[in-house]
Amino acid sequence: MTEILIPVERMSRDIRAAATTLSTRQARFLVDAYYQFQEDRKRADGRIRALSELNEPHSVINWLSEQSNTVENQIKGALDRYTGSHAIGSWMREIKGIGPVIAAGFLANLAIRRTDKEGVEHIAQVAGSFWSVCGLVPGKDRRRRGEKANWNPALKRICWIAGESFKKLQSSDEDAYYRHIYDERKTFENAQNEAGAYAEQAARELTEKKFGDDTKAKTFYAAGKLPPGHIDRRAARYAVKQFLSDLHTVWYEYEMGTPPPKPYVIEHMGHVHLRVAPHVQSMQNAMRRKAA
Fold first, then answer.
1. Is 65 exposed, middle or buried (0-12, 13-18, 19+ CB in 10 A)?
2. Which of 246, 256, 244 is nearest to 287 (CA)?
3. Angstrom distance (rounded) from CA 45 to CA 48
4. Which residues of the chain carry a pLDDT beneath 50?
5. pTM of the model as a whole
6. How far apart are CA 68 and CA 34, in angstroms?
């Protein structure tokens, strides 16, 4: 038995160096692999706890957990180098709540410029392009069974993970920029919910989904309100959309050399409030290095 309990080989210096030149396809694969190994480790850890309670041996499963953890860290290290070698990846890494894996997920799946199968280049002019491919556009983020999604499922998952990461930050941390956006939005969402603004959506949830009679969520929906978990998801999704807007702004300016077109409500409807993305100085420095 001990013959198979060998450690996973540590990533060599050459391989770590090669991580800076990963293609987007390779980076996407590594991001997916990271979360797969993470799930495997979590399952193994759960089994270890169960076996420990039964006083049963679990050396092989413990080995599996350790090896999964080792590979997780190795992949994370590779993605750390990958994101650090890109100006946009470096900017994302300055955002509290965005680590190397999440940053790599966005960097490898999003683009300001893309070329279709006919060789025609398309420019993501507005942040809504990012929202759409991430499956964050209301009314367009659902699909019937058997239908092909018109968004990127991997990106939608990354967005959910990013939202959860923002929520884990401390509200008292002045640098937790998107945690503060989440907090402010949740306060707004709760006020709207209490005022009955989501009664129509609550009624739709009751007709489209099945709930047990003793389900707490059903009690809220039946009262014309969204349950706390639903409100929480709305607030987290809003924070992620604001992050994607800022990501689009800095990425567009870095690639195109000019700020992106102003949102319609700013340009044509008299709205004057336009947020400034955090850490813009870092991107301005990167642009100067690029131009030099």
1. buried
2. 256
3. 5
4. 1-6, 264-272
5. 0.87
6. 9
